[in-house]
């Protein structure tokens, strides 16, 4: 067993972790569970919440709770109940709509000992809107695709191809290159909160940045996307690109209330300068690659929650460490209550 994976000789105190909207994030759930064991927190558990028990992470968790949709008026009340019942020490949100909700509820949650691994409202606003993100990257001096006026494009003042996406979309849903005026006229009214951008080509990277619970950026892990599936990386490899890492750390440092793990997306063209186009202020779907490559975000967050300085190595991750995802399953015995008709009764 590697030295870094050896459990500590005694348990200081337990830190239970809550993954909200856990969905299919079993690999991340198991990474937190492994970090708890590696730190000797053998009485700790990973709890999951979701809208439905038909969730692999819900079924794989040490405990699980059904909650209403994040937009429901009683969502935070229900979350507080879950945190109190399970003595939660860290809350890890996994979908974008939860970020502003947890940012607004931070004081209430921290008052019961449940620390959200979530940024404040200013970072949540950059994460929520790709238009706001573009303005942020431009303001701090990072290259970013220009926002294009659709009327200028339709009038012939902007060259095609361009790129259309929903301003607050996710998983690449509704994103597409636009080759001409006819395509723009067709797709613009069919896109939710449409945003037209300069088309930037090159190699796409996702960059995980660890800023921890004190808001100090500590490391950046670029992950080159080799293949995606339903908008999430299915094959990827870490690349120690100094320019990408420096730019991502600069962006994280410019956010006034960043906390936890941030996920930036950028494109690197022939000149090597990254062009940033998105921020998700949460664990990205491909974060298990960074964790497996040595950037042990779950362990570092647990260490911070225990009041310790996380032991972040230099370099923080292995270069050219690859992830090749495949289908797996969580099996549930005696699962008749998971049938839709059973849940309606």
Brief synopsis:
Helices cover 30% and strands 24% of the residues. The protein has helices at residues 26-38, 56-60, 75-86, 98-104, 106-110, 121-128, 130-139, 150-154, 181-187, 242-254, 287-292, 297-305, 340-344; strands at 16-20, 46-50, 63-66, 88-93, 115-116, 162-166, 176-178, 194-198, 203-212, 219-229, 232-238, 260-268, 274-280, 322-324. The strands form 3 sheets. A 6-stranded antiparallel beta sheet has the order 13-12-9-10-11-14. A 5-stranded parallel beta sheet has the order 3-2-1-4-5, with helices on both faces.
Explain what this protein looks like in three dimensions.
The termini are far apart. This protein has helices at residues 26-38, 56-60, 75-86, 98-104, 106-110, 121-128, 130-139, 150-154, 181-187, 242-254, 287-292, 297-305, 340-344; strands at 16-20, 46-50, 63-66, 88-93, 115-116, 162-166, 176-178, 194-198, 203-212, 219-229, 232-238, 260-268, 274-280, 322-324. The strands form 3 sheets. It has a 6-stranded antiparallel beta sheet. Strands 3-2-1-4-5 form a 5-stranded parallel beta sheet, sandwiched between helices. Strands 7-6-8 form a 3-stranded antiparallel beta sheet, covered by helices on one side. The chain is α/β, with parallel strands linked by helices and 345 residues long. It has 2 domains: 3-138 and 202-324, D-amino Acid Aminotransferase, Chain A, domain 1 (2-Layer Sandwich), CATH 3.30.470.20; 147-198, Dna Ligase, domain 1. Helix 6 (121-128) crosses helix 7. The longest helix is centred in the N-terminal third of the chain and has 13 residues, at 26-38. It is built from 13 helices and 14 strands.
């Amino acid at each position: 067993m590697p030295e870094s994976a050896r459990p500590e000789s005694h348990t200081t105190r337990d830190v239970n972790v809550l993954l909200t909207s856990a969905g299919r994030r079993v690999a991340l759930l198991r990474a937190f569970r492994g970090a708890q064991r590696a730190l000797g927190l053998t009485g700790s558990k990973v709890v999951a919440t979701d809208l439905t028990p038909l969730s692999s992470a819900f079924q794989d968790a040490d405990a699980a709770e059904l909650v209403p949709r994040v937009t429901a008026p009683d969502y935070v009340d229900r979350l507080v109940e879950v945190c109190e019942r399970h003595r939660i020490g860290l809350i890890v949100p996994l979908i974008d709509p939860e970020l502003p909700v947890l940012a607004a509820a931070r004081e209430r949650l921290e008052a019961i000992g449940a620390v959200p691994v979530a940024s404040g409202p200013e970072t949540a606003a950059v994460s929520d809107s790709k238009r706001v993100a573009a303005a942020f990257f431009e303001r701090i001096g990072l290259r970013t695709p220009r926002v294009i006026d659709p009327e200028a494009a339709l009038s012939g003042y902007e060259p095609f191809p361009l790129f259309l996406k929903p301003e607050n979309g996710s998983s690449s849903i509704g994103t597409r290159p636009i080759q001409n005026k006819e395509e723009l006229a067709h797709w613009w009214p069919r896109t939710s909160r449409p945003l037209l951008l300069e088309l930037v080509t090159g190699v796409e990277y996702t960059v995980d940045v660890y800023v921890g619970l004190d808001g100090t950026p500590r490391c950046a892990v670029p992950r080159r996307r080799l293949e995606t599936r339903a908008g999430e990386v299915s094959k990827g490899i870490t690349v120690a690109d100094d320019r990408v890492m420096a730019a991502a750390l600069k962006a994280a440092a410019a956010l006034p209330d960043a906390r936890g793990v941030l996920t930036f997306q950028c494109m690197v063209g022939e000149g090597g300068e990254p062009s940033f186009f998105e921020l998700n202020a949460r664990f990205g779907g491909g974060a298990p690659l960074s964790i497996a490559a040595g950037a042990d975000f779950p362990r570092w967050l647990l260490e911070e929650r225990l009041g310790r300085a996380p032991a972040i190595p230099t370099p923080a991750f292995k270069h050219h460490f690859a992830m090749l995802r495949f289908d797996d399953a969580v099996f549930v015995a005696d699962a008749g209550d998971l049938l839709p008709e059973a849940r309606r009764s």
